[in-house]
């Protein structure tokens, strides 16, 4: 079938929903989502959303901006960080007006708590900047935005998966989507597309990400020859439940939780003497990895402890109830009595589709691709630099989702329709029938498992040229095997086996981009830690990487960082 | 350990009637039932269909019936089923799309009918509305709802009366009735004051027992009934 809308937004998490609320009424907008909208992964965000409201103690947007820049190891574009920090209070008040049930202070204002890397007076001490609803902040914000979208009558196509982007004469013409319930391919003919498809933590074995986080919306522009930016920067969250990778919010440390090694030592005192356990995520993850490597994991094993026992049952129930229940369910541990076994887990991608501050997708030359927009984790605004601070992600989604929506609404009058090509879904249908062909090919699950193992082993918290070259060789071998892979299920109704197969192409392509960018960056900065190049090298690498495919070859180049207020200096906490 | 599964299989467009298929899976006691389903789908039989996403009880995708009890496959651990055959079926009372996947639109429509968004009186203040922490606490339990539909699948009344709005819709009604910032208290109460609304609940408590987020659903419904009576007098 052919569906026709002015604007199609792909992904119904916070960025997609917020953008949709901005453009509805201005043009005919539709949302498509591979899962039911309230299943999107924004809902897994726990700790909160940052804004210098100053409700609990003095705070300022300049401090927030500084923390964002320093947290990003100075790879953050400072004009973007300024927009974020200045707009944050408005964005949080707006959410409150929409009904988000933030926790409250005794005087009725929104309560705030401490979070990693957020400080007062340019790094002096931790500051309470995170607005929260217990430890399900993402979920309640998403519920509020979803029902607001329902109220406004926004059209949502649930369980429609984008499989191809269609351009004509360099301008967006539409996209091909697969309807999971029926197995039909549809063409969405539109003038504008907003990609808001989230991250791709499923490249790794241990991740806090959802099964749906396969980066389809990041890979498709890359496949079409557009560049991806800062792909080497992958955030490993320090506190994933051991073995499972399920997230234990930084809020646990914001509320007073302490990390201890096998000797019972509060080891973060050695790594970040001023803010200790509330250092940014890249530093804490490295510290944990080092403790484990040097034999100071618990019982010499591959995890350390997060100690919440001193917080008391009341605080755990009021502010950390979801994570308390995860710990009880998955580990059989009562966090008010016993410490929680944790280890780093792949959590967030700083890199993605390069965009302007209005969400316009940029090509290799830095020019806008007409009609194509991106927002949220799939995009790279150069906001989070080399490492994102906790609570800046939800904020990014609502601030820049809105800005992308505003820009699209404004451009609608100017942008003409492109004719739909003949049989736009032909190429996708061919990919599907190849996967469904009977043959001797390997199973998708086997190949995906090998990719995740290889990336976790060779492209994780620490990297070297040797490990990255091993990763690259594995990826290339897997891409070759993938070309002969097959799926069991040749049916058309709810064929998730087929979707797994199509998603694996995305994961392989994104792993390729990530490793190429990581090999080229011969320095250590933020979340990218090269053991063969341990220092930050501002002379050579205070630049954003761009990686793209041209004529079957992967190319890497760089573009400058925008520095306005804060000159790069040593990053200590 | 080796686990024995018996799984409901049905493609309404192809099969005359549902059947049950046996599978054996090697599992770690700490694995989730969802991990076992994944092993089946990825390693043995790619034709099996079910929904999943976050894998840790936040997104609400994988509600199903496991050994007769509605729950999330990602919140059930293998060790709790040791030595038993595990029977996996779709949520009861929902039309089956395929295997363990059910049609959710009717369920969600009933939530949407509750106008599950804030309708506050007057203009927005410049900053946040103030709210007493005690008022905010009134919705603490119900904002945990993840729309997984386990409560609705478990409710015996749903089997007798398909028009019942169901426990989840009443939880969402409660969510805004007791939000001190909302201005539609009476209208919202009226919206559930009919025989297929709050009054259909017969206090079986199955919803409360199965809720993966430990929401005291039945208690909430009884509070609503009392509130309706109070508003009439």
Please list the strands of the largest sheet of chain B in the order they lie side by side: 2-1-5-3-4
* Strand line-up of the largest beta sheet of chain A: 7-3-2-11-19-18
Please compute the radius of gyration of chain B using only Cα atoms: 20 Å
Structural class of chain B: alpha+beta
Summarize this structure briefly.
The complex is a heterodimer of chains A (573) and B (233). By secondary structure, chain A is an alpha/beta fold. Helices cover 34% and strands 21% of the residues of chain A.
Describe this structure in words.
The complex is a heterodimer of chains A (573) and B (233). Chain A is α/β, with parallel strands linked by helices and 573 residues long. Chain A is 34% helix and 21% strand. Chain A has helices at 14-23, 61-71, 78-97, 137-151, 216-223, 251-254, 268-271, 281-293, 313-319, 321-331, 392-411, 426-436, 444-458, 465-482, 496-520, 538-541, and strands at 2-4, 7-10, 29-33, 49-50, 112-120, 125-131, 155-158, 160-168, 171-179, 184-189, 192-195, 228-229, 234-241, 258-260, 304-307, 340-349, 353-354, 360-362, 368-374, 379-380, 462-463, 529-530, 543-550, 553-560. The termini of chain A are far apart. Chain B is an alpha+beta fold. Chain B has 2 domains: 2-102, Ubiquitin-like (UB roll), CATH 3.10.20; 105-232, Orthogonal Bundle (Fumarate Reductase Iron-sulfur Protein, Chain B, domain 2), CATH 1.10.1060.10. In chain B, 32% of the residues lie in helices and 15% in strands. Chain B has helices spanning 33-44, 105-112, 133-137, 150-154, 156-160, 167-177, 185-192, 206-210, 217-232; strands at 2-9, 19-26, 63-66, 69-72, 85-89, 96-98, 101-102. Chains A and B meet through α3, α4, α10, α13 and α15 of A and α1 of B.
